[in-house]
Amino acid sequence: MAAYNFLDSKDVNSIEAEITGDAFDFNPTLSNANSATLANSKYGDRHRFIAVAAKSWNYGANKEWTTTLSSFYELAKGGRFNYTYAGDINNDGSNLNDLIYIPTTSEIGQMDFSTATDAGNLENFINQDDYLKGRRGQYAERYGALTPWRGKMDVKFIQNLKIKDNNSLEFSIDILNFGNLLNSDWGLVQQPNAVQPIGVSIDAGGSPTYSFNSNLKETFVYNSTLISRWQMQFGLRYSF
């Protein structure tokens, strides 16, 4: 079996919050976070391919023993995120929810930075980021950016042994992210290195001063948690 799914989902707020303060802080916006503005939803993959293959072999005196090998493969692009300022540039009380403006090269030259190297480092960061580079002179969209493609294959082995009558013994092995077991460079998931790349502070006169982390060179880094690692589990079941 093979299938493809395309998703274009929008909502007015993608945050699951128990208190209104969290819903306000984590709802990226260009103006008033209390306004119900339709924008990209953070949930779901935009593109998703899946494939399933399985095969069973029956053997033994009465064909009562069965070996089954199956696999599931997924290739997807999603993981929506957005870029916001590390600071409260619109003075709404939140340092988390202000979507950034992506300046052009000439506009970067007119910005006030806290250190002399920040302008060049920001220019280099924008140029290596496909999303930011494509929106120069515009504001970032709420959850408009996507993480890179990711692929993963899971494999399952089942050995069923008929003992007598209706009694049987089943042994199974599940290998999650099988490709990563074969090669440590396969099955890895990338995530944003920083979603607040530009810092901003406002002086008493309302003028902004910007900052940029000189260590920030690339948009994405590899996720080192279990999502990027292979795992194996064993099962044993006796049926009677």
List the helices and strands and how they pair.
Blueprint: E1 2-6, E2 10-11, H1 20-25, E3 39-40, E4 47-59, E5 65-77, E6 101-102, H2 105-108, H3 118-128, H4 130-133, E7 138-139, E8 150-164, E9 167-176, H5 178-182, E10 190-192, E11 198-202, E12 208-212, E13 220-222, E14 231-239
Antiparallel strand pairs: 1-4, 2-3, 4-5, 5-8, 6-7, 8-9, 9-14, 10-13, 11-12
Summarize, please.
This protein has 240 residues and is mainly β.
- N-to-C series of helices and strands: EEHEEEEHHHEEEHEEEEE
| Count of beta strands | 14
Low-confidence stretches: none
Strand content: 35-45%
The side-by-side strand order for the widest beta sheet comes to 1-4-5-8-9-14
State mean pLDDT (0 to 100 scale): 92
The biggest beta sheet is recorded as: 6 strands, antiparallel
What is Rg?
25 Å
Number of domains: 1
How would you describe the shape? elongated
Helix content: 10-25%
User: What gap, in angstroms, lies between the N and C termini?
Assistant: 32 Å
Given the helix and strand composition, which structural class is it?
A: mainly beta
Instruction: Give the count of helical stretches.
Output: 5
Overview of the structural elements:
The chain is mainly beta and 240 residues long. It has one domain. Helix content is 12%, strand content 37%. A six-stranded antiparallel β-sheet has the order 1-4-5-8-9-14. The protein has a two-stranded antiparallel ribbon with strand order 2-3. The two termini are 32 Å apart. The mean pLDDT is 92.
Keyword list:
240 residues, mainly beta, six-stranded antiparallel beta sheet, two-stranded antiparallel sheet, elongated
